[in-house]
TrEMBL record:
InterPro entries: FAD/NAD-bd_sf, GMC_OxRdtase, GMC_OxRdtase_N, GMC_OxRtase_C. The gene is citC_0. FAD binds at residues 106, 254. Residues 100-123, 294-308 form the Glucose-methanol-choline oxidoreductase N-terminal domain. Belongs to the GMC oxidoreductase family. Pfam families: GMC_oxred_C, GMC_oxred_N. This is Dehydrogenase.
Length: 627
């Protein structure tokens, strides 16, 4: 049964919502936003309002059933369904950019992979942003705080060496459930064995900050029942749904932040203007407004509010309050891959689209027995440039980076490329991610997610994906109009940098090597994508394939980066009373899917705000004592 204000009191009607008095307004009820709001609500003296543009969808079977997530893409009740500008690096394709538009944000529609990244990636945040508290030591405790780790594996895998973890890197009572796959096909086991036969090793614990190697994957799936999505709503909203100091309004579109000029001339955020049900409203805060609207909407709201590049704002007809040209930067992970037909008798998730098979699997799932409908990604790997290239190829890559760096005009971008180059020169640095699924993926259909991830009827296929997790290319997200309902222009800059296409070509070449290694090669029939005549060992042919079969991995960051747009306390530079807490603040990408860092970020931000309030209260008391 769907949640309502009667069953979940934190969900408010517009009348009740605007009558409230709030210390903090959280714009966006996604990964970081609900985490932040839920933790702040632990203090009964703090009042929090959450404004979400989408609906609630609490208890929605399409959200909760793990294997159902592809059916949510492109549907306006779940997905913003953004599209990029034509991308020169991918033959002019306008790429689909799915982002969750409902409570839980993209944590409600993603593929539930749980990763953390590498130690030095986070330490680089401190270095490049000039901050102190966002390195590995500053963020790792919050990865643990949000996690509830289920270490069980299926009986069929009891002797498998694919699974490895260390107890000290995990927590067992956090809000977000993480678990290994409860179902693995024989081809999934064969793939991992083939990777080991190619010389790759299983990380001791891929969530410890050292993830180099290929091993089992953790998903945010709750295995206490048949297997359901664990996401920001189930972890941070529903358990706190009775708290009187937390109010959530859905289907409300924030249009801009409201500012007033302070006595010292500084712009001070007072609240937000938003629309709901065709009417306009204003909501004021007593403490701060926190933008947690996501990688696309947060920079859009900043620009609509007058914070961004003056040239961009002038063209859009928005008065510029703070001229900051780094608002709206974007960096992403990109993904391509290879698809094969499986031999007869092998299971594929493509079978789910067959009516009789779906009926059988649905009954199994409804009976609490899990099965393929509770399926998550069973394996994941992170490899370095050294793992996928020759010495001559690496030398060429290094020279390309140095040549390109000479064209850069500011210190941040040069420093960024120096850091990326250092990673390329590290044999243990995670540059490329490898994920395999026994399902058809149309890597050439990045304009339409219903085709890209749409399971095919009548096929039995296997796909292995490669994701570039440290792209040199960097794009932008900018408003083109003062209309808050007009989507921003997204230039993802996919394959803009010559190094990116070479790194991806090395990745698909390695995939084909693994797939043609025993025991995996015995599971496969003909190659579907690319067609058999394409020689992936030929760099020119591999790059040509990549340019027609690469798109987003759905992990955009950097629209309000640490150091450039916000400080280490997440305050937007140049104004007061406005903070950002979502993937927009990430200044340099990590190796790993981003939902894990968004939960950790929300946890950390909540602690920071609580500490600020404690310090302010102490200062006030001391002041009273001295009067």
């Amino acid at each position: 049964m769907a949640a309502t204000p009667a069953t979940l009191p934190v969900l408010k009607s517009i009348e009740d919502f605007i009558e409230g008095s709030y210390d903090y307004i959280v714009v966006g009820g996604g990964n970081a936003g609900l985490t932040l709001a839920g933790r702040l609500s632990e203090d009964p003296s703090i009042s929090i309002a959450v404004i979400e543009a989408g609906g609630a969808k609490i208890g929605d079977p399409g959200v909760l059933t793990p294997a159902a997530f592809p059916s949510l893409f492109g549907k306006p009740e779940y997905d913003w369904d953004f599209h990029t500008l034509p991308q020169a690096g991918t033959n002019g394709t306008k790429h689909s950019w799915a982002r969750g538009k409902l409570l839980g944000g993209t944590s409600a529609i993603n593929y539930m992979m749980y990763a953390r990244g590498q130690v030095e990636e986070f330490n680089d945040w401190n270095r490049i942003a000039g901050v102190k508290n966002w390195g590995w030591d500053g963020i790792k405790p919050y990865f643990s705080k949000c996690e509830s780790f289920d270490k069980r594996i299926s009986p069929e895998d009891k002797d498998s060496k694919d699974y490895s973890h260390l107890e000290e890197h995990h927590n067992y009572d956090g809000p977000i459930k993480t678990s290994y796959a409860s179902f693995r096909s024989s081809s999934e086991r064969a793939y991992h064995e083939a990777a080991i036969n190619c010389g790759f090793k299983v990380p001791v614990d891929a969530w410890s900050g050292v993830n180099h190697g290929i091993g089992a994957n953790l998903s945010t799936i709750d295995r206490s029942g048949p297997g359901t999505r664990s996401y920001a709503v189930t972890g941070y909203l529903v358990p706190n749904g009775q708290r009187p100091n937390l109010a959530v309004l859905t289907d409300a579109h924030v249009e801009k932040v409201i500012f007033e000029k302070g006595t010292d001339g500084t712009q001070v955020a007072k609240g937000v203007a938003f629309s709901h049900g065709g009417k306009s409203y204003t909501l004021l805060h007593k403490g701060a407004t926190i933008l947690s609207a996501g990688a696309v909407m947060t920079p859009q709201i900043l620009e609509l509010s007058g914070i961004g590049s003056k040239s961009v704002l002038d063209k859009a007809g928005v008065e510029c309050l703070i001229d900051n040209p780094r608002v709206g930067d974007v960096e992403d992970h990109i993904m391509s891959g290879i698809t094969y037909n499986l031999v007869d008798g092998e299971f594929s998730l493509d079978h789910v689209n067959t009516p009789e098979v779906f009926t059988k699997l649905a009954k199994q799932y409804a009976a609490g027995e899990g099965g393929p409908l509770a399926h998550g990604v069973s394996n994941s790997g992170f490899l370095s440039l050294f793992d996928v290239s020759t010495e001559e190829e690496r030398k060429n890559i290094y020279e390309l980076v140095e040549t390109h760096k000479k064209t850069l005009t500011n210190d941040f971008d040069r420093k960024r490329e120096d850091m990326l180059l250092a990673r390329l020169k590290d044999p243990k640095a995670a540059i490329l991610q490898f994920i395999s699924l026994n399902v058809n993926i149309d890597f050439g259909a990045r304009h339409d997610m219903s085709i890209f991830l749409g399971q095919s009827v009548g096929t039995t296929r296997w796909s292995t994906c490669v994701g570039l997790h440290h792209c040199f290319s960097r794009g932008s997200i900018h408003i083109t109009s003062s209309d808050p309902k007009s989507p921003p222009a997204i230039d993802a800059a996919i394959l803009d940098h010559p190094v990116d296409e070479l790194l991806m070509s090395f990745g698909v070449r390695l995939i084909d090597k693994i797939l043609n290694t025993s025991p995996m090669k015995e599971k496969l029939a003909s190659r579907v994508r690319p067609t058999p005549e394409v020689d992936l060992s030929d760099t020119e042919q591999a790059v040509k394939y990549i340019k027609g079969h690469t798109g987003t991995e759905f992990h955009p960051i950097a629209g309000a980066s640490l150091g450039l747009v916000v400080d280490d306390e997440l305050n937007v530079k140049g104004v007061k009373g406005l903070k950002v807490c979502d993937s927009s603040i990430i200044p340099l990408h990590i190796s790993g899917n981003t939902q894990g860092i968004c939960y950790a970020m929300g946890e950390k931000a909540a602690d920071m705000l609580k500490e600020d309030r404690r310090a302010a209260a102490t200062t006030k008391k001391l002041g009273e004592l001295t009067l």
